[in-house]
Design brief:
Structural class: alpha/beta
Shape: globular
Number of strands: 6
Strand order of the largest sheet: 1-2-3-4-5-6
Order of helices and strands: EEEHHEHEHEH
Number of helices: 5
Strand content: 15-25%
Length: 126
Amino acid sequence: MLTIAPGVELDVQRGPNWLLVRIDNLDAVRCESIPLADEIWELLQRHFIWRLVLDMGRSPALNRHLINELLDLHRRITAKGGVMRICHVSPRDARVLTSLRLDDRLTPYSSWEEAVRGSGNVRKPR
């Protein structure tokens, strides 16, 4: 576990060609004050890897700040030719991403395995 703020940790695992990161103990109040994109970007740079699966199963509900952090991280990773996928997103948050038309960039997958494979989540055309 990597502590990025008091009580906020990232569980980081390295898979073949991927970095798997789970956010632990981040609550909605502290979420606004933590530069999550910067912290995860630094991790990717340290590992020299540009393929990320971000497990959102223990993170707070998506709010404007968290969505902006995810979009910033996605932009940085894709600029490097990498891939960012998210998993374990709540049904409510998946609906939020769809309603904001962000599900093409922040596609929610049900597990790390499906996110790595890029399978298991069939998107319907608009």
